[in-house]
Amino acid sequence: MPPAIVAEDLRKEYGEVVALRDVSVEIEAGELVAILGPNGAGKSTFIKIVCGVTRPTSGRIEVLGGDPADPEIKRRVGIVPQQGGLYPEQTVRENLRFYSKLYGREPDPEPLEMLEVDRFMDRKAGQLSGGMRKRAAIAITLALEPEVLVLDEPTNELDPMARRDVIRVTKEFHRRGTTVLYVSHDVYEVEQLRPDRVLIFLEGRKELDEPFDEVMERHGSVLEAYEGVASCPGE
């Protein structure tokens, strides 16, 4: 099976600011990859390129065998951004119908039940708490059964029980074969997730790319690996 994502020497410049510096990474189909790094590390820029939201200044990116900006590829990739994702004046049910038509798929109700979103389907998204909106956005994205799922800080604004549920559901859909990019700044959450691989970005560079088990064996914890990268960037 070909890789789900192939990135070669990705570079992204915004004027004089270099947000991404010659990043290369290959992500296999069905992998669960955690992406860590502080604010401004390049994580969000990388996933925006993967999702076809922005173009790299230079380098090559291929997702599911094609151009991530291609509408046909975009329909196979689901993203839950840090903020937004739902139309506030529409109910959760109306948002689900809209995205279902946009992606051309009949939604699977199971994720809505797993994240207990079925309890507030007829409430307007703008009237929900931040945590409820985030759960709804995740559930709707999963209901459309993307082949590649991108979760950008998915547990922000969630209480501990809801965080646990998001991690559980993420692992379940990974088990079913979904390729998952899980962006976080929480090293302890990544340890709970137990991804296949851990990527750490710093100052626009990919500073670490190792299997999770190897990270734990070599460094003792994700925190130790993170601190080691932060103290010796570029080595």
Describe the structure.
This protein has a domain at 1-70 and 185-235: Rossmann fold. Helix content is 36%, strand content 26%. It has helices spanning 43-50, 71-74, 92-103, 110-114, 130-143, 160-175, 187-193, 212-219, 222-231; strands spanning 5-14, 17-27, 32-36, 58-63, 77-80, 148-152, 179-184, 197-202, 205-211. The protein has a 6-stranded mixed β-sheet, sandwiched between helices. Strands 2-1-4 form a 3-stranded antiparallel β-sheet, covered by helices on one side. Helix 8 crosses helix 9. It starts with a strand and ends with a helix. The model has no long low-confidence stretch (mean pLDDT 93).
Give the beta-strand count: 9
> What is the number of helices?
9
Order of helices and strands: EEEHEHEHHHEHEHEEHH
Structural class of the helix and strand makeup?
A: alpha/beta
The amount of beta strand, in percent, is 25-35%
- Let me know the largest β-sheet: 6 strands, mixed
* Name of the level-1 CATH class of the domain at 1-70 and 185-235: Alpha Beta
* Mean of residue pLDDT values: 93
Could you tell me how far the N terminus lies from the C terminus, measured between alpha carbons in angstroms? 33 Å
Layout: helices, strands, pairs:
Elements: E1 5-14, E2 17-27, E3 32-36, H1 43-50, E4 58-63, H2 71-74, E5 77-80, H3 92-103, H4 110-114, H5 130-143, E6 148-152, H6 160-175, E7 179-184, H7 187-193, E8 197-202, E9 205-211, H8 212-219, H9 222-231
Parallel strand pairs: 3-7, 3-8, 5-6, 6-7
Antiparallel strand pairs: 1-2, 1-4, 8-9
